[in-house]
Amino acid sequence: MVSALCVTLIVLLQCILCYTPVSSFEVELSPKKPLFRVGDRQELTCRMTKCSEKMTFSWSNLEDKPMYAEPQRSSTGSTLVFKSVSKNIENKIQCKATCLGMIKQAAVTVRVYSFPKVPVISGHDSLVLGKENSLTCEVSDVYPAEHMTVEWLRGGKVVRTQEGKYGIESIQSYYTFTPQTNDDGESITCRATLSLDGLPPEERTREITVSMAVLCPPMNTVISVSPNNPKENEFMNISCVSDSNLSVYVCRTTNACGRQTDNVTFTVGISSFKVELSPKKPLFRVGDRQELTCRMIKCSEKMTFSWSSLEDKPLYAEPQTSSTESTLVFKSVSKNNEDMIQCKATCQGTSKQAAVTVRVYSFPKVPVISGHDSLVLGKENNLTCEVSDVYPAEHMTVEWLRGGKVVRTQEGEYGIESIQSYYTFTPQTNDDGESITCRATLSLDGLPPEERTREITVSMAVLCPPMNTVISVSPNNPKENEFMNISCVSDSNLASRLVLSKMLDGKETELVSGDGPRVSVSYDKANLNHSGVYVCRTTNACGRQTDNVTFTVGTPPRNTTMKNTKDDGNVYTALLRRLNSIDVIIPVIGMGVLASVASSLNCVRKAARKGLSCLNKGTPETV
Question: Per-residue pLDDT averaged across 10-21, rounded?
Answer without folding.
Answer: 43
